[in-house]
Design goal:
There is one protein chain. By secondary structure, the chain is α/β, with parallel strands linked by helices. α17 links the parallel β12 and β13. The longest helix is centred in the middle third of the chain and has 29 residues. The protein has three domains: about 140 residues, Nitrogenase molybdenum iron protein domain (Rossmann fold, 3-Layer(aba) Sandwich), CATH 3.40.50.1980; about 110 residues, 3-Layer(aba) Sandwich (Rossmann fold); about 170 residues, 3-Layer(aba) Sandwich (Rossmann fold). It contains 19 helices and 13 strands. It has a five-stranded parallel β-sheet with strand order 11-10-9-12-13, with helices on both faces. Strands 2-1-3-4 form a four-stranded parallel β-sheet, with helices on both faces. Strands 6-5-7-8 form a four-stranded parallel β-sheet, sandwiched between helices. The chain is about 50% helix and about 15% strand.
């Protein structure tokens, strides 16, 4: 039975318009009622640390703005006219039709409309992303798979040695997605791979998507989002995949990540070890400076961790902070609401990383339930830190605890090119961790006062 939840951390499947907007020179075309696309953009971009419109997002998204006429008589004609106009006016390499609740309820066949244009040689893909069908993650998977099936399609496979397709964080749903993709690509290129990163400024856009069948292997860096996609590619093109279930954050996990990928890809191990040695040397030299700071301020630094994020970032950050930095895990709340089968998979991943994390793991999309549980578990707020959204910031201020932004919604910050991934990302995370003691509450003011005195 469905129920009302408070403080949700995702929106409906139509949020996949942001997945399209993240592909260079790709245009979402929305067949929905007035306001749907704008509300999704407001949540998934503006409320995701003000990430902006990009090339074809925000108020520039084409939409049918379906009304009573389309409900009564159908909206396929209006959609056809909109797609035709978009192809004439908008400079793009790919056009993806997405639907809202209204059009799917009345039975408009948007996929057939898209296919008619595709048969004429236009790069148009059709999807059904009504809100009642699923959340942001469902929409993302639906759109990615539709692009592969309808646009990439049946192609002759010419495998390129060392080429890898990367599937990982969901654009915009992960507020750090641009920086994350840049760092992942940089790490993989450093060990000798050629990378199709698919989204953002590091991507060559449609050229990379068309080249997907030629990859030597697919790399999934996520507990479950994207698993259906790499399995689809294995069936369709015979491409093997490597599933690395957490984001590599910190020296230990990142070095393990690089060695695992290198072994799977049969890369030169000596070259890989040279890269790891160089990166670890830099990392630990910086880390020593942080440890000096920690030693001087250990009475003010929080040690009890509550993490509120989706499975990808929540598990990965908790894994780093607990296993590599030594904080005490108190709450691990995963907000993406995966299926029961995917929940079982995530539980196994977490248990393999740390049994203590597995013991406190909760799948909970309802922010009110999360906050009530945190209030019940928290003992000394001045030694607690909440990694989460603006909602957790508000709670932290109420409790006089510490906080760091990790997951959406984030309405009081701007993220342009920040990442917690890799060696460098982990140092950024620790900077934010330590800086939190100055941000709110008595403890932060006291440390600042001591410094001045």
């Amino acid at each position: 039975m469905s129920q009302v939840i408070e403080q949700q951390r995702y929106t409906c499947a139509l949020a996949a318009q942001q997945t399209v907007a993240a592909i260079p020179k790709a245009h979402p075309i929305v067949h929905a009622g007035p306001g749907c696309a704008d509300k999704v953009w407001t949540f998934a971009a503006t409320s995701a640390a003000n990430q902006g419109e990009g090339y074809a997002g925000g108020n520039t998204i084409s939409c049918t703005n379906s009304g009573e006429t389309e409900v009564v008589f159908g909206g396929e004609k209006k959609l056809t006219n909109l797609v035709s106009s978009a192809l004439k006016v908008l400079d793009g390499d790919l056009y993806v039709v997405l639907t809202g609740c209204t059009s799917d309820i009345v039975g408009d066949d948007s996929i057939s409309v898209a296919k008619r244009f595709a048969k004429e040689g236009y790069p148009v893909v059709g999807t059904e992303t009504a809100g009642f069908k699923g959340n942001s993650y469902y929409g993302h998977n639906t759109v990615v798979n539709a692009i592969i099936e309808q646009f990439v399609g049946e192609r002759e496979v010419n495998t390129q040695k060392g080429l890898v397709n990367v599937f990982t964080v969901v654009p915009y749903q992960d507020p750090y997605w641009r920086g994350d993709l840049q760092e992942i690509k940089s790490l993989l290129e450093a060990i000798g791979l050629e990378v199709n990163i698919l989204y953002g400024t590091e991507s060559e856009g449609i050229k990379e998507w068309e080249n997907i069948p030629n990859a030597e292997f697919n790399l999934l860096v996520s507990p479950w989002v994207g698993l259906d996609t790499v399995k689809l590619l294995e069936r369709k093109y015979g491409t093997p995949y490597l599933h690395y279930p957490v984001l590599p954050i910190g020296a230990k996990e990142t070095s393990k990540f690089l060695r695992t990928v290198a072994q799977f890809a049969k890369l030169d191990q000596d070259k890989v070890e040279k890269v790891i040695k160089k990166e670890e040397k830099r990392y630990y030299e910086y880390f020593e400076g942080l440890i000096d700071y920690y030693s001087e301020n250990r009475q003010s630094i929080p040690t009890e961790l509550f993490t509120v994020a989706d499975s990808t970032y929540g598990v990965s950050v908790a894994n780093f902070l607990v296993n590599e930095f030594g904080v005490i895990p108190k709450g691990l709340y995963l907000t993406d609401n995966p299926t029961k089968a995917k929940q079982k998979l995530v539980k196994e991943i977490v248990a393999e990383k740390n049994e203590k994390l597995a013991d406190i793991l909760q799948f909970e999309p309802d922010g009110w339930n999360i906050q009530e549980d945190i209030k019940e578990k928290i003992r000394n707020p001045k030694r607690a830190i909440l990694f989460g959204s603006t909602w957790e910031k508000i709670l932290a201020q109420q409790l006089d605890a510490h906080y760091v932004y990790l997951s959406i919604p984030i309405v009081e910050s701007v993220i342009i090119n920040k990442s917690y991934v890799g060696y460098r990302g982990a140092l950024t995370l620790l900077e934010d961790y330590f800086a939190s003691i100055y941000r709110v509450g008595y403890h932060g003011r006291q440390v600042a006062t001591d410094r001045v005195v």
